[in-house]
Structures are given as structure tokens and as C-alpha cells.
Amino acid sequence: MSSRREFLKQISAAGLVAGTVPLTVTSAFAQGKRVPFPGEDGMVLRSFRFIDLESPVEYFNTWLTPVPHFFVRNHMHEPSEIDAATWQLSIGGKVDKPLTLDLAALAKMETHSVVNTVECAGNGRGLFRPQAAGIQWGKGAVGTARFSGPRLRDVLQRAGIKPTGKHVMSRGNDDIPGKVPPFIRSIPIEKALDADTLIATHMNGAPLTKHHGFPARVLVPGWVGSASCKWLAEIKVLDAEFVGNFMNPGYRLPNQPVKPGEAVKPEDTHPVTALGVKSVISGPGDGTTVKTGRVSVHGAAWAGEANIVKVDISIDGGGNWIPAKLGHEQSHYAWRMWSYEWKAVKPGNYTLQSRATDSQGRTQPATPVWNPSGYLYNAVDEVKVHVA
Amino acid sequence: MWRDRVNKSQQFLMRVAISFAAVACIVFLGSFEARSFGAGGEKAMPSYAAELPAGPMQAKATTTCTECHEARILLQQRLSKAAWTKEVDKMTKWGALVDPADREALIDYLSSNFSPDKPPYEPQRTAVGSRKSAK
User: Fold this and answer.
1) Chain B closest CA to A360's CA: distance in Å?
2) CA angle, residues A101, A104, A108, in degrees to nearest 5
């Protein structure tokens, strides 16, 4: 485990390296509207405060997403002070022996790593019609990283879960403005005790950055990102689902399909948990022109707790489907890269589509499954390409 | 476009940065990194916040809404008047200071500027190379 000092040393070293490449910075400024945001390269700026950054889809060409390209979703202000030396995590509620752990204590525990595709529940919200209120994410509020840290169950078992313990809530150190309810959510005890649910301190082999929850976050693999509380401060075992804004009315889906724009009664909803099946075309880009010849159509596909079985590609707007080649890198909760070599012989306009199918037999729908809060958009992906 | 406008001091800062990129880069990064893990957090970052569009409620909406979050969160919405009403009432419950006499005018301002028939918001991108990319 890195100490705060070591961490700051890494950070300042990174700053000095950046200082040696002023030409890159100059060209970025020359592009006019680019906003300086150290450590976050070429991201789509959804909001500066709170910080909400989206990955452009063309970044989805590596199995692991580099941290500077990994989407950031904050509901509140980031904690103003984070001192790894004094940071503490409290574990309480329905446990025999409430605990307090510091970073050194976490570092002494057995470390486990999970490569997980984290996706914001609202990824694709901006593509729904009618639009739902909230960050209008395009396709890039998703990324894949190797998260490492002790298992949540090891920490919970050290405290001893009482038989009445059925849900586990996590609270972060977010700086809450006004009378906004705190960003607290809970997960069922079964998911909390899963061998792959972590208290992550590292991401892609380095300590978590501040935007990703330094010094520790929960990592609930296969589930919507909001389950994975950042800047972790408290874990509490509860006898029932946590009662609060971000469990209800927030983060809920209708029990039955609804027509776009239709109102849904609160009692006809349930919490959003695992991710759906989904694919995204990362290239060629939407609206681009490619030359006749071989064109690499490629992207990523993921399915939450399920595995991707196949990705089919259409170059004629959904008339015919051809299987794409799946990448060799795979892990239970991680996306699969896929590619298809398209022989673009005839000039003209084409609609390319990708459609993933998973091990639970789920396939991406042709049209979005609308819901009032704009969650889990997973319609067949599509880009328009001109062949010249 | 109004939504791409930055205020004069920000434009000046950008010009300085272009002129003295090498020096500015080191100084800027140094100060940002030092602060981002110390007091102030993201609130201490140099502000590149966007502005709300002109109109009779611009000043009041700016004071009320950007106390907690910046204007881009509003600029990207495309909502009906009913949906804006819900949002304004939710935010008021969450601590936004809306004079009851201004509620209707605020809802009108938001729902006329950010209605579903408006063209989509074009977000900016962050600069590349502000720090060496870590794989």
C-alpha cells in the first residue's frame, strides 16, 4: 500500500513529465475550446462542478481503459481533504464487533483483483426520447479496469455479521452541498459477500486517483457504477434496504415495460442492480468517411454479471448480420473487445450496427427500453459511415 | 454561441497559457495537483464553468443554481415544462434558494431555453496532455 507521501510523489513526478511535453499542451490549447483538466485526457466535459467526464467512444480500443480515459461520475463535490495517513473506515450496524480500519490495516489483508467493466446506470441517457433529467451521457460513461483490494466479505466477517444483517450500505466522504441527501446506497448481503466484491484501493495497478475514490472505494462487479461508493468512509450492515433518495425514488426501473414518456407509480418500480447486455462501436466513427477497401469495424461488448457470447455486425442497417471476432482478453465481469473486417467495395452511405448476445440469452433490443430516469440504455449500436 | 462563451478573465488566462505554454503548464499543474489533495478540492480548481443564457432570469438562475453545480448541468438538459417544474421543486427542497415569487419565472426561463425542440448541447472536451497518460 502506498503512503500518502508516496502517492504525492507519484503525482508530482507525473506533473514534471507533463511539463517536459509543452508542445502537446500547446496543440491542445490551439484546438480552441479544450478545457484544461489535468489527468483527464480528451474527455467529453459533461460538467466541471460536479465533475462528470465521459470517454469518447474512440477510446474503447484497449481491454483495460487507462485511468486518464476512464469516465468520472460524481454526484457531489469531491471531498476537500483526503489524508491517507488519517483516513479511517468504520464498519458497524448489524455486526457483533464494530470495527475501524485504516489504510495500513486494509493493506495487511489478502488482496484480490477483479477486472470489471464499470458503467454508469445513466450511460446513454441522452439517447432516450423523450429525454430524462440528469447528466445527458452519450455512449461513454463506461470503462474497464483492474481493481484490487481486500474482499468486502473479509472485512464484514471480521466484524461478524449478525443473522439479522440483510443489506450492506456504504457512505462516502463526498462534500454534500445544501440540503441534498447524502449519496448512500445499499446492496443485498449476498452480493456483498460475493468473492469478487471488493474494497478497492488500486485501479490498474496504481492507487486510486482522487476522481476515482481515493483512498478506497467499494467495487460491486457487474452492477451499475452507483453501487460502487467512492471515497469510502463507512460500511453498515442493515436489516433492510437502505432508505434514502438514491435508493428510492432514485435508481429505480419500472417493473413492467412502459411507453416512452409514460408516468410510472413509485410502487411499480425496483432498484437497478446488474448491467444489461450491450455493445458499442468505437470505430469507424459516426459520420466519418472511409476509403473503399478493408475497414476495421471494432468496439467493445459487455453484459454485467453475464458473459458475452457473440457480437453480430450489420452493414446494411440491420438486414443481415455477420458474427464479429471476439478478442482473446476476457474476465468474468469485463467487456470483450470485438472486431470485424469489412470489405467496403462499393462507395456510398452505410449504417453499421453491432448487437451483442450474452450467456443469459439476452440480446440488445433494436429500440431503446425507455424508462423515466433514463437508465440502462442498451439498444443495438449504430454509426453512419460514408464510403468514398 | 452563448453556451461556448467563456468570460474575459478565462479568455485572458487561455491566451497566457498559449503564449507561455511550457512555463504555464508546470506552474498550473503544480498548483492544481497540490490543491487537489488539500483544502478546497475541486472547488479550488481554476474555473472553466459555463454561463447561462441571457434573459430576465439569468442573474437569479446563476446565483440559485450554480451555488451547488455549474451551468453545464442545465445547458445539456432538454426537458418539458412539467419536467422542469419537478426539477426546480426538487432542487428547492434540496436547498436551492428560490424566492416563491420567482418560481414561475425560473421555470419559464429554464423550459424556454432548454426545451426538447432545441438542438442538442455540444459538450467541450478536456485538453490532451495535461498530464502524461498512465496505462
Assistant:
1) 32
2) 95
